[in-house]
Amino acid sequence: MEQLGHFINGQHVAGTSGRSADVFNPATGEVQAQVALASTAELDAAVAAAATAQPAWAATNPQKRARVMMAFVSLINRDMDKLAEALSREHGKTFVDAKGDVQRGLEVIEYCIGAPQLLKGEFTDSAGPGIDMYSMKQALGVVAGITPFNFPAMIPLWKMGPALSCGNAMILKPSERDPSVPLMLAELLKEAGLPDGILQVVNGDKEAVDAILDNETVQAVGFVGSTPIAHYIYSRGCANGKRVQCFGGAKNHMIIMPDADLDQAADALVGAGFGAAGERCMAISVAVPVGEETADRLIEKLVPRVEALKVGPYTAGADVDYGPVVTAAAKESILKLVETGVAQGAELVVDGRDFSLQGYEDGFFVGPHLFDRVTPDMDIYRKEIFGPVLSTVRAQTYEEAIGLAMDHEYGNGTAIFTRDGDTARDFANRINIGMVGINVPIPVPLAYHTFGGWKKSGFGDLNQHGPDAFKFYTRTKTVTSRWPSGIKEGGEFSIPVME
């Protein structure tokens, strides 16, 4: 049995807490490794070592730090298939989807190569008589990233890239469900030239999370996960005086107008709703066709597409559409919500409850489900299912449709499919949701823009990656300086003002 520990001070170390968690192969249901769960003492020791290493890294020329990122990009590309295979083995994603997971994280590292430009301050010459004023963006010190199981490459890269480029040291606490890829990324960063101790990967559970939140040396915390945990981390971290950004759950609506290309919309819904087994915070889980005719035609097009989905392990070939969910508990939760939907009166037009894959009966596979005539009071509408379940809520008008998305407690992503520019423009301007797609089902911004949801999908003032990340991981110091000019005027005893 493979034993996974931590990556501390540039090397793999075994855990000392005596506690561990099983790491499953979701396709077979078998335990393939055990990962150590850090104690508070182990976490605190990792933070202390990071704090010792960080000042020299912060003092390193920003261009030299950027060169580490440049080398890191090359090494990720070199090991892309190796990373994707490890990710698929522990998470269950198809191989192609796993490569996409790595690629979208890699793009943020590419953006971080521009750190010298992004870290430039401001300067005002002669702000007053003989007075110059300038600002500096300086590293916070030791920061932490707490990342989820569903993107074990992308989200750690989103956190570590900007944090390290700004001159911070980072404590990364990845999900204990699929910890191998973050450990591999730490190895690649060391190979790229990152000094020992600047990135510490500490595996753990709630004890490690609480230790991060309570450690006075940790200056900032970034988190991605469920909304209840996001709220907990945000509240406790802020109460302890830390800078905190937390991104939580989602219930993403896609509105389909009567003038939309319904074949295009149906294809988009199937990919966005069932890709990665629905385990994406940007997955479309609610289709909102406008008008009964639109709804009937959409369901007619969706049913054969959903029924034709190929579910299987990543080893079954490139034509597999999605794999298993991450744990047996996740499978049980999804199927329980499906049963609740049926009991509450939704019409289950594609029923995947009896899905079983020959040879993989013990795997965590969930068949595709398509509901019609879902109403806003149902649990399957209100809750984030995080599985291969698409709910259809029929709206009679555009105003009713946009109101559904705006009234929901989550505000991560949304989309509209239409040929009408005026409708699309109105939707983009009015919707109270952080990321909007117009004829784009999963509107994840590229690395040089920022990613973040509204309402209960996001806690904090700044988003992930893009310019916001460099604001989050630095603080501004403003300096006012005056050098002797030979003019002696004596001391001043009042606040100087402009005349």
Question: Mind explaining what this structure looks like?
Answer:
This protein has helices spanning 40-58, 62-78, 80-91, 95-112, 115-118, 154-165, 180-192, 206-214, 227-239, 262-274, 292-307, 328-343, 379-382, 398-407, 421-430, 467-472, and strands at 2-4, 6-8, 11-13, 20-25, 30-36, 123-128, 131-139, 142-146, 169-173, 199-201, 218-224, 243-247, 252-256, 284-289, 347-350, 369-372, 389-392, 410-411, 413-417, 435-438, 454-455, 458-459, 474-482. By secondary structure, the chain is α/β, with parallel strands linked by helices. It folds into 2 domains: 2-248 and 457-479, Aldehyde Dehydrogenase, Chain A, domain 1 (3-Layer(aba) Sandwich); 252-438, Aldehyde Dehydrogenase, Chain A, domain 2. Helix 2 packs antiparallel against helix 4 and helix 3 packs across helix 4 (95-112). The chain is globular, with a radius of gyration of 25 Å.
How do the helices and strands line up, and which of them pair or pack?
Elements (H helix, E strand, L loop, with lengths): L1 E3 L1 E3 L2 E3 L6 E6 L4 E7 L3 H19 L3 H17 L1 H12 L3 H18 L2 H4 L4 E6 L2 E9 L2 E5 L7 H12 L3 E5 L6 H13 L6 E3 L4 H9 L3 E7 L2 H13 L3 E5 L4 E5 L5 H13 L9 E6 L2 H16 L20 H16 L3 E4 L18 E4 L6 H4 L6 E4 L5 H10 L2 E2 L1 E5 L3 H10 L4 E4 L15 E2 L2 E2 L7 H6 L1 E9 L17
